[in-house]
Specification:
This protein is mainly alpha-helical and about 70 residues long. It is built from four helices and no strands. It has one domain: Arc Repressor Mutant. The longest helix is centred in the middle third of the chain and has 14 residues.
Length: about 70
């Protein structure tokens, strides 16, 4: 497994990361490893994704549909 060294991280950023790790019961290293792993797996949202979302949820702008949802 490779190592990564990041220089010149502001103290307030390190403190915030440490606090988030502490709240999760993790070490700083484990917290950052999980964050980096999640970031590496993310994919960009495409125009096609947005178009599909718009098509799927188009009726949310319909007052009749929304009125029926809450009655």
């Amino acid at each position: 497994m490779a190592d990564i060294l990041i220089r010149d991280v502001p103290e307030h950023v390190v403190a915030a990361l440490d606090e988030r790790a502490r709240k999760l019961g993790l070490s700083r290293s484990e917290f950052l490893r999980r964050q980096l792993s999640a970031e590496a797996q993310r994919t960009a949202v495409t125009v096609e994704d947005l178009a599909g979302f718009a098509e799927t949820f188009a009726d949310l702008a319909d007052p009749a549909v929304m009125g029926g949802a809450w009655s």
